[in-house]
Amino acid sequence: MNTHRLGQTGPQVSALGLGCMGMSDMYGPSDRAESIATLHAAIDAGMTLIDTGDFYGMGHNEMLIGEALKDGLRDKVTISVKFGALRGPDGGWLGYDARPQAVKTALAYTLKRLNVDYIDIYRPSRLDPAVPIEDTIGAIAEMVQAGYVRHIGLSEMGPDTIRRAAGVHPISDLQIEYSLLSRGIEETILPTCRDLGIGITAYGVLSRGLISGHWQKDRTTDATDFRARSPRFQEGNLEQNLALVEALRQIAEARQATVAQVAIAWVAAQGKDIVPLIGARRRDRLSESLGALDLILTAEDLAAIERVVPKGAAAGSRYAEMQMAHLDSER
């Protein structure tokens, strides 16, 4: 497994990271034993970056990871945690809280659930419009000084916010959606991060399974799966997006690869400062994704991919309208 440093000041991590959200939340029911087995398989394969959020399953995901790491595996991984999203007992979303007091309280609970002494990368999940980013980053910086956090990251922030945050404390990386279907960061966000020496951890590289090559038009979606309400999976949009997948499949087959492997390799090919996060929650999907590491896309491959899936080709936005309005990265 190759490794990359996250930005100029961040930790050295594996070329692919494991995003664990789907093991607890958002994509319908999951299998606990298989999730833990997948985490162990990822570590055995050399994956060191493990990404979670304290609101994934309202703490369930952190406890799951804590259980998976309990047998001496903590020192083999870099744990990245997002915080700040508020949820009710029914799972509903209640907004964000990134006040300094909330930052330290959330961190305290995260340390307990994960059963660890420190978090490698701690980051606000979104910009809290009621709290200056300087206050939020300043509070995390205090936790760095106290030894509870090693590095500070950001998530879904725009250029101005990124610069203001970096003015308070070095930022290791920005976590943000980036894929063949979501290329909005290329205009100003990616250049800003590169100018400041901030890495990118890219989530949604398979567009929540849409460009995995496995999604079927007539697939039944569980009521707890947010893709049932996601614009790109709605009738009309879905057909257009799956047509892009079929065009991508021809390129993949020519390279004796899968659609998912091509999609992951494309993100990885956009720069060594970009680390794709793989949202696998089963060992077979993890194994397929790891195969992308052996796929080196040529200039001809990249040109062919650009022809069949040009920038802006996706039908529908990456989140519903209300959620898009909360994204500092989309302003």
TrEMBL record:
Keywords: Oxidoreductase. Pfam families: Aldo_ket_red. GO terms for molecular function: oxidoreductase activity. One of its GO terms (cellular component) is cytoplasm. Residues 16-308 form the NADP-dependent oxidoreductase domain. Gene3D superfamilies: NADP-dependent oxidoreductase domain. Transmembrane segments: none annotated. It comes from the Bacteria. PANTHER family: AFLATOXIN B1 ALDEHYDE REDUCTASE, ALDO-KETO REDUCTASE YAKC [NADP(+)]. This is Aldo/keto reductase. It comes from Rhizobium straminoryzae.
